[in-house]
Amino acid sequence: MLLRFLPLAWITAGLAAAQPTIGLIDFYGVRKASTDRIQKELGLRVGGPLPAKTLTEDKLEAIGGIVAGHLEAACCVNGQAILYIGVEEKGAPHFDLNAPVDGAAVPLLPGEIRDTYRALLEALATASRNGFTAEDWTRGHSLITDGPSRLLQLKLIELAEPNREVLAQALARGDDEERAMAASVIGYVRRKDLVVNSLQTALRDSEAAVRANALRSLAAFAKLAQTDPQSEVRVAPTWMVEMLHSIVWSDRQNAVRVLLNLTETREEKLLALLRERAPQTLAEMARWKHLPHALPYFLLLGRSSEWTEDEIQKAWNENREAAIERMLKAIKKKNDVPR
Fold first, then answer.
1. Which residues, 6 or more positions from 329, have their beta carbon under 8 angstroms from its beta carbon?
2. 289 secondary structure, DSSP code
């Protein structure tokens, strides 16, 4: 299945109205503050227009106890936007980003890599519209079943290895676009063990598109490590889990998709890390009103609780809130056991 990685965006494609309106408002990162108070102070209401992003974030950060705020609109409820209001409160978990990169004055990547990558993005967009989204990660990089996309991916395999050092340089000090390209293309190198650290660093890049592409590349590396222990590829899941605490909604969405894929095997080390670092965060998002967005977090919380897939599905269909509370109790009990 093709995991759709979300770029940082204000108005998500698919909202047709010239002046999009709010169909639903939800929050993340709120532990102590009142969501009613936040919504009132921001002057937001369902049925009203989407607010000015920067101005509203400034108002959000002026509310007592909130050190950072983020607004992001997603698609859709009856053609209206879903407005997510993210906050980071004092003392709350913090996903730390690297300082912005002062990009190189001239392009670092060869023109052939740049052109192939851009062509791949167009081909993938067409494949997605046509429903041809199945892909294979067993080789440590994506190979999609869609013919035109796959041919371009195979070309990137040919280009990546001889340009491995250039790709690493572009990932570290290119401009925003080049770093995003490099984070994706470097995933196609043959010696994946030599670029893992560069991608781990890129997970905290100041640019959301770079983080998304680095996460996708590392997710494929991690899948290879699971299916082929002899590959010598080792991916630490720490920053993937920490990304669940990001103030940026799309970071959380991208991270949960990867973690769902990686927890299919129920690897205990990863589940233990989720139990230690993210139960309350997962529970918060599992309570979201928009069910398609809440479900991935509910599934991940259930796996962290060591519930079976059948138990998780049954609980989702019956009483979500009661199930979340039982999951949290199970995780607390597990965490309290001396190691």
1. none
2. S
C-beta of residue 22 within 8 angstroms of C-beta of residue 83: yes
Residue 42 in tokens:
């921001």
**Per-residue model confidence as pLDDT tens digits over 267-285:** 999 999 999 999 999 999 9
22-89, CATH topology level: Ubiquitin-like (UB roll) (3.10.20)
CB 252 within 8 A of CB 26: no
As to burial, measured by CB atoms within 10 angstroms (0-12 exposed, 13-18 middle, 19+ buried), residue 317 is exposed
Structural element, H or E, at residue 180: helix 176-185
User: Are the CB atoms for 110 and 163 separated by under 8 Å?
Assistant: yes
Quote the CA–CA distance of 21 and 296 in Å, as a whole number.
Answer: 26
Measured in degrees and rounded to the nearest 5, phi and psi for residue 106 equal: -125, 150
- Rounded to two decimals, the pTM is 0.90
pLDDT in tens, 195-238: 999 999 999 999 999 999 999 999 999 989 888 888 888 898 99
Cα 339 to Cα 329: distance, rounded to the nearest angstrom: 18
Distance separating alpha carbons of residues 326 and 236, to the nearest angstrom: 29
Give me the half-sphere count of Cα atoms (radius 13 Å) on the Cβ side of residue 293: 24
Integer CA distances (angstroms), 306 to 39, 93, 157, 301, 322, in order: 36, 24, 38, 9, 16
Is the separation of the CB atoms in 304 and 274 below 8 Å? yes
What six digits make up the tokens of 325? 């509370």
pLDDT category at 131 given cuts 50, 70, 90 is confident
Label the pairing between strands 66-77 and 135-136. unpaired
Give domain limits for the chain. Answer: 22-89, 111-236, 240-336
> Degrees (nearest 5) of the Cα angle 207, 32, 296?
55
